[in-house]
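Weekly puzzle thread! Below is a chain. First person to post its structure in token form gets bragging rights.
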Amino acid sequence: MLQVDTLQASVEFGLARRDVTPPVGIYLRLWPRSTEPRATGVHRPLTATAIVLRNAAGVATEADEQIIVAIDLCLLRVDEQAALTAEIRRRTGVAGQLMCHYSHTHSTGWASLVYAAMPGGDLIAPYLDYLASQVVDAVTEARGAVQAASIVFGRADCNMGGNRDLWDSETRQFVCGFNPDGPTDPTVLVGRVTNPDGDVIATLVNYACHPTTLAWQNSLISPDFPGATREVVEGATGAPCVFLQGASGDVGPREGFVGDPAIADRNGRELGFAAMSALESLPAAGTTFHYEGPSISGTTLGIWAHVSVSNEARSRLGRWQCRRWTVPLPYRQDMPSLSVAHRDLDRWQAEEVVAQRAGDEMAAADCRSKAEQMTRLIKKLAELPQGPIYNLPVMLLQTGDAFWLGVEAEHYNVLQRELRRRFPGTALVVMTLMDGGRVAYLPTADTYGKGLYQETIAVLAPGSLETLIEAVAAQMTAWGAATQVGTTA
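Winning reply:
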């Protein structure tokens, strides 16, 4: 008989959330053009949400439990990330099954000790201690709250995000701004998590878009649009909503780089309503939409009904496989040396002083931005492992009909567009910035040489993103990822 299958998974699931809002007054200048170095207030609180996923068949090895901590921060630098991970492991006993995933909001500043001498920098070290304590508590509670659960996946489209690689024909340069003709992935992938009684215990919203609604004009701590997205979904479902950032290296809000928090909230509501349209369409867990046959009522009607899945399907929904590995990717050959970066930093800092003395605030802001870029580059070059290649960490987890992909760094959205094109019969959850992003961006090969910001700070060679896509696709194929949409006759 004809039936339409919904993508689902049977797992054990636990969740806990903590507030991780930094204190007002902390160093906030992530945007070099900002004239206010400290946070002057809070738009919405920041959260850290620990998700525990376990094999429904039981935990025999470390791979049978995976922990994702979704954190409302831009990201942590290498040293701070290592310290956070080590503290979580020390105090909870978890090991290699842990990953931190950042929403990448740009309204939290750099929680890095590199900036300890800056205004408000004295608050960074105590905040990092507070962050670790809150995340440890969330992980501990989530592991203790694990219960049998079903996840039903669905999708909708949202055009809040737009491509941000724009050619400015007047100034003859690429800029980072809304490009109405550029490619994006409008997919909003949602997951509704229910307990055996059918109660909703959590929802997942996976979408690819930089949280850059708020920029240098803003001095408030903010989760940007994910905050309002969660508010919309949680208000409708009565359960915690977890936002998971997708491959958004070349995607940002169509309306962004502003200082008005109301616009961030509007962007968030747009995504939240799209997520709710997908969530409202989902059937009960463990069911399929089955054609029952004809019924005569004036005309001959075709009757469909939701019925329980077969025993064979139930076995499929309990599938669990997990692999963590690294993909070797070459460094680009034209990266500047540390000595060149230091020289350029000194030059821009000197030119900023000259501009300030001349009262040219615009030129001073430009110089400060260039100096900050050099500061970040110097830190990045110092952190990178030596050698011709970088081993990029990858986590791939299969639960039932779903694949969860965790990758370090920021990837162009073709990563998820191409994998979803190849495997349309799966629910693909893409999570970038896994444990940070030492190598910055992974743009497409044809992006190199254009002078785009993402390309200029990328440290891996052209073709690295394409190599990663092939490596992930090969693993998904080996695990039997569905290449057809779930309709059967």
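Puzzle host: Confirmed. Bonus trivia for everyone else. The chain has a mean pLDDT of 94.
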